[in-house]
Write a structure and sequence with these properties.
By secondary structure, the chain is mainly α. The protein is 74% helix and 0% strand.
């Protein structure tokens, strides 16, 4: 029996949290630009891998992954009194849900663009690509 998506996401969440904890413990100079760059370099790859490999279907899985970024925004003392969305807006990184949506739209755009190019090329050079009819 295969592993459930939630059980796959938990280790990725734990690794991303571990990396964010490492940044929190070792970096004393907490300038937003420095922490955001470290976050993008050390933490984001773990979260983005989980997004592309296991696109979370359930809301609880989305919340689990979003908690890491939520934890990052709380590292800044002057932003703690703001809501999570306001902190994200001030710091600049997109929410993980927005990144997932952008990734999906990019894939769809590539698929549609590739299909259009194939149709154009097949119309111009039908002897090379043959007919585009998929049904016989």
């Amino acid at each position: 029996m295969g592993r459930l998506p939630g059980s796959v996401l938990r280790p990725m969440h734990a690794k991303a949290n571990q990396m964010l904890g490492l940044v929190k413990r070792t970096i004393r100079y907490r300038h937003p630009k420095v922490l955001i760059n470290l976050y993008k370099t050390l933490v984001t790859p773990h979260l983005e891998y989980s997004m592309s490999a296991w696109n979370p279907h359930y809301q609880k899985d989305n919340i689990l992954l979003e908690r890491v970024q939520h934890r990052l925004t709380r590292l800044f003392k002057d932003l703690r009194n703001l809501s999570y969305d306001d902190r994200l807006e001030r710091l600049g990184p997109w929410s993980l849900e927005e990144k997932r949506n952008r990734c999906v739209l990019t894939k769809v755009f590539k698929m549609v663009g590739e299909t259009v190019v194939r149709c154009l090329v097949a119309g111009i050079f039908p002897e090379v690509y043959g007919e585009l009819n998929t049904r016989t």
